Prior knowledge:
Helix content: over 70%
Distance between the termini: 69 Å
Number of helices: 10
Radius of gyration: 20 Å
Structural class: mainly alpha
Order of helices and strands: HHHHHHHHHH
Strand content: under 5%
Oligomer: single chain
Number of domains: 2
Amino acid sequence: MEEVKARRTRRTEKAEATRRRVLDAAVRLFVERGYHSTTIESIADAADVSVETIYKRFGSKAGMLKAARDAAVADAPEPDEFFSFPAPPIEEALRSSTDQQVLLRSLAEFSSRRLERLAPFHRMLRSAGTGDPELGDFIAADHTARRERQRANIATIAAHGPLHLPADEAGDTYAALANPDVYLLLTDQFGWTPERFRAWLIDTSARLLLLLDDQ
Length: 215
């Protein structure tokens, strides 16, 4: 029985190592060559696996991009260099205080670190565009899910007192500030550092959303 469990464990570990190797190769090639210029065959060669293995595991090139994003968001235990630092659990942070300024600062710090972590992924999405229907559906769903998450986060903060805006409008305002396109504009095009973006998001979201004494 123990030998059977050991074999299963080895198979699981081998499968996970293969998955990570394929995703690492896919991310690197997407960054280096662009999404549309990267073929399934080139990813298979870089990962030293068969094309059939990739199709069986991920279904398509868009499937690999989505899996890479999910791995980054999940803070995999052995992240590659593109997604290399963890983000704190925001749910725990939002339960730790009733002070709206503390809560919004915790949320803004979390959002900025996640945006920094996922910046390579969002650059890939920008280069990929929406020519692939499967990828277009994923991008639309990602926007919707992000808006819903931020509305829920701001609603948690609004439960501890009134905001400068109605809760849904405040949620959309924050979702617009903590948006990948805004992050990439300010860091890639305007030359801001991640630290400057973080400070800006903390300050701007507080001024727009909270009833501060100096307003």
